[in-house]
Amino acid sequence: MGKPASKRPPTLFRLFLRELRHDYFALFGAVLLIILLLAIFIGAPLINHFHDVMWVNPTPLPTSPADSGTILGLDALGRNQFHMLFVAARNTLYLTFAITFLSYVLGILVGVVSGFYGGRIDNFIMRVCDTWAMVPFLMMVIVFLIIFGRTPLTFITFFTLFTWVGRARLLRAAALSQRQMDYISASKTLGTPNFTIIVREMLPNLVDVAVANFVLTLAANVGIETGLSLLGFGLGWDFPSLGVMMQNATNPMFLQHFWWVWAPPLVLVVVLMLCVNFVGNALQRVADPKQRLV
Amino acid sequence: MWKMIVRRILILIPQLFVITIVTFLLGNAMPGDALSGMIDPTVTAEELAHQRELLGLNDPLPVRYLDWITSIIFEGDFGQSFTHRRPVLEVIGERASTTFWLSLMILILTYAIAIPLGVIAGRYKGMVIDKAILLYIFIALSMPTLVLGILNILFFSHNLGWFPSGGSASALVIASGTPLEVFLNRIHHMILPAMTGAILGVVGIVFMLRANIIDRTYSEYVKLAKSKGVPTGVIFRRHIFRNSIIPLTAGLGFAIVGTLTGVLFIEMIFFYPGMGMLFFNSISSQDFAVVNTLIMIFSALSAIGMLISDILLTIVDPRIRVQ
Hints:
The complex is a heterodimer of chains A (294) and B (323).
Chain A: H1 12-20, H2 24-50, H3 65-68, H4 81-117, H5 119-134, H6 137-148, H7 152-179, H8 182-189, H9 194-231, H10 242-245, H11 252-257, H12 263-287
Chain B: H1 2-29, H2 45-55, H3 61-75, H4 88-123, H5 128-141, H6 145-159, H7 171-176, H8 179-217, H9 220-228, H10 232-250, H11 252-269, H12 275-284, H13 288-316, H14 318-321
Helix pairs in contact in B: 1-13, 4-5, 4-8, 4-11, 4-13, 5-8, 6-8, 6-11, 8-10, 8-11, 9-10, 10-13, 11-12, 11-13, 12-13
């Protein structure tokens, strides 16, 4: 005799939908985000299929939308900005998702082990994390990229290497509070192996916190990628990302007279991050019942 | 409390030690060495090799580390800058005060903007003004520092012409102006970069203050004060506001760390000649002695920031002292 389905606790997704009904910002963000993601991930492969986005035809100055007969004009290298925007947005999202995901894998691993075992192991791991957190990670990433070359792979590697600490701390705090709960002690008394407890009993209870924070971190990472690439210390010209496209804005003449070579990626970044933040904030409220609107 | 603070400072020592090892290894991975700064056409390769041997640059790694760290601790010698051809510390010292004043300005503006916003949002929770403030916070959260910097330059500098688009003071004023004029000119140059940092830095503080105020509003002692008939204004000032503002002090350390990261980017986009711009320029010219030292300085600064946070937290929150 199982319980009737309606008595099961609502899933994170259902709670999220319930939260959306009370938070118009989040609802707006979620809808716009879905539209944008669909457009980017369907549009980019299509554009790549029909056009060579990186095909260059240098001109002295960027060509305006009206003169070139394209939607967002051409840049000084003669590349179609509208097409590039899709590909760049997709690249940025791939890259930041990879970074966020990998730093979570590391963070969950370290954080949960630290929080679950506690005591001396926890103490040691946390001291290491504290030390690692003191290192100015942006500077380190920049230096490592200079030494090892600026490719998407090195970017992901070093970025992950220097950002997992925050995730580990968060997960450790969450694991520490779970550890003291009765269901863990009960399971330990029954003789369940620690590994089984961590994976099958503790982790499912940490998912809510992790998912909410994941989304917010994703937004922050988009911002950092944009910043680094914009200054020319992130990715190079051969890998179009939103930040790389915005490098045009560092040229005062382009900034003043050729809006189409820097404004579209700028607006897209802000809108994307805004949507992701709205959604992430709603998720965070769902994960922490005290903050819920409903 | 003192025991806690002393212990916290003692932990700092091995941490700083580890950081020196990391930066040392990093310095080894970078091209160039202590003698790169002296290379010019008059020096022969043999002389350089001889100098290298004399300086012990061919020794094994641990020996070199010991040499390096002792000269830093006892002589304050961080090496030679290869582009500036002067000791690294001298080059950085010139820029440090610029960064310091800019960071201080950002911090002051951040708190000056964040505290009223947080208080208003918390007090009028759910009303239009709260929603408007939250919307601003979300936009600030979604705005990369450089993006806002670029927009500020475009509107306030290029289009309106209110502020200069870069630099920390104009050379003409420094050369011929009175001290007051120079001071005002520096402030004028500082406003735009400082506002950029502050507008974005407020996010965490407003969120925290708002949550604190809402939390206190529903607390038992506020209910008691209400039932005693204390006027709403007095309840808000004495019971809610004071208790909400205290935890903020502990956030100061994190604000310092955050500001330092932001300043790095802000200086670069506004061509503000501080340590951040020096960092990017040194990276571009591969002047790794400077880069290395800057990384150490920023690590030490963020360590101090966190230390301040922890100490303030123990002062503010007696519960932590017991442990």
